[in-house]
Structure formats: structure tokens, C-alpha cells
Amino acid sequence: MEAKIIWLFAFVVLYWVYCIYWGWRSAQMAKTASDYFIAGRKLSLWVFILAATATSFSGWTFMGHPGLVYRDGFQYAYASFYTITIPFTGVIFLKRQWMLGKRFGFVTPGEMLGTYFQGDFIRILTVIVALLYSIPYLGVQLGASGYLFNVITVTEGFPDGMFTQAVGMWILSIVVFIYVASGGLRAVAYVDTLQCILLAMGIIIYGSIALNAAGGWDSLQEGLAKLAASDVGKWGTTKGFGGGDYNAYFAIPGVIQWTAGLGKETPVGGLWTGIMCLTYMFALMGIQSAPAFTMWAFSNTDPRPFAPQQVWASSLGIGFILFFFTAFT
After folding, report:
1. What is the per-residue pLDDT across 217-244, written as a single tens digit (0 to 9) for each?
2. Which of these, 314, 306, 313, lies nearest to 45 by C-alpha position?
3. Per-domain residue ranges for the chain?
4. Residue 247: helix, strand or coil by DSSP?
5. How far is residue 140 from each of residues 131, 173, 234, 305, measured CA to CA in Å?
6. How far apart are the first and last CA of the chain?
7. Nearest to 257, CA basis, from 247, 266, 245
């Protein structure tokens, strides 16, 4: 067995042990519904900052963002500003939700909205919205993890990987189910704290590896300059959209294009027009306004962690990492 596979399995087992440990320990600490669902309103400042950041950006950012930059070019890289729009809804809602939860003892967003609107229909609607949001979002995360597990187990003896994406995804799903179902939000928070650190380190490391493989910063810039002078790329050139005929790998193809729709007619020069980038970032604002994120707001001892998470961790920290290590390298 190759050394990289041994190291992989060693670290994966350690990570799984960490996850299951926090599931077990959190289960021992959970004496009430409040303890299980919102960690007894006692999450510490740093745990919330790191865990909420990991929840906001996790697998789809680690895998999907650099993949789309590679496929579509710098026109998609402008969407990196979602590091600002995602926490923006948190700026609007989280502190207010925390105050309501603290004052009236709410544990779930359905309970809060049901009390405010004085009806059970809104409770049911909240659960439906939470399911419709959380299930696909969780599927994306687990799918990304399964794909990564498949790719990094490729060896000479296993050219297609020791585990398929589906097998890797199901193994990870079982581990997630064990620690989440047993430990509740406290277990999720402490696991996500580690995941946030791994997310940031992972993006920095593979960005640095890519920069080194390109021969350094100067060589990278020279290569990009040659590419920009050609029409090489998935989308060719912008053909006048956006003010000129530029390589679509480097230019946004105009503010908006009227087409028959994605899947029927592809916009000239690529998908990521100015309006596409803007509406994409607006859609991602739903992450911190989703019902599931309300429970993160309820779980804090006080509102002090909200501003550092929204400004320093998300907008500045993850923003810098995405712009430099994924967009530019």
C-alpha cells in the first residue's frame, strides 16, 4: 500500500474518532431539549465563530469554488464576493433572533415564528423550508466529500480509486449521522470548529502547491498573459459583450444577456454575466437566513461572536483565502 494511502487512512480514522468522541461526550452533557438542540445556549465565542464559518462555506467552497474558477475562469471568480453576501443576512437577523430566543426561551425557529404569527401553519412551513434547504445542501457537502475520498485514493493498483464516490459518501454519511444524532448541536459545533481550520488550511495548501507547480508568481502571470491573448477556453471570447472581444476566461460577458434559458441557449462568452454573479450571490444569502442557522443564533451565551464571525472570519479571512489562493492561483 502506498504511503499516501496509509497517511490518508490514519488521518481519516483520527478525524472520525474525534467526531464520534464529541457525539458521545455531547450526548452525556445533553439533559434537556435545549441542551441537545441549541447546546444549552452555551457555545463559546471561538467555537461559534469557527463552526458558523465552516457551516457557511464547507465542502462546496473547498471543492466547487476552485473547480468553477478552473472551468469558467475569472468571470466566475467575481462571485467570490459571496464571502460578504453570505454573512450579510446574519448581520440583519442573528442578533435579533438571539434576543428573541433569550427573552422568550425559543429553541427552534418554528417555535419563534409560530408564537409571533400565532398559528401552527407557519411552524409546519418552517419545517418544510428547512428540509427543502438542508437536504440538498447536505447532499452537496457529502457528495463533495465522497468525490474527494474517491480521487485521493487513486493508486497504480486502483486507477479509479479504492472507493467510489458513492461508497465514500455513504461511509461519511454514517459517521455524520452517528455524531449528529447522538450529540446534537454541541457535537456539530465542535466538529465544525476543526473543519473550519482544515478548510482554511486545505485551501491555502493546495493553492500554494498550484502556485509552486506553475513555477512561481512571475511564471503564472506570464502564462495567464499568453492565455488572455488567445481564444483558448471553455467559452471562447466575449464577441463584443462586455465592451470588446476578450478571452472569456478573463472577462465578464456583459451585464446581462437575454437567452432562451440555461440548458437551451448558452450566453455568448460564458454564463457569468454581471447579473448572474449578482443573483448567485443573492441566492447564497439564504445560508445564514435559513431556519437551521437560526438555531446557531439561539445557541450562544451572548451576541458577541456574531460581528467577528461576519466581518473577520467570513468576509476578511475566508474572503482573502478565496480571492488569493483559489482565484489567483
Report:
1. 999 999 999 999 999 999 999 999 988 9
2. 306
3. 3-19+46-327
4. strand
5. 14, 12, 24, 27
6. 32
7. 266
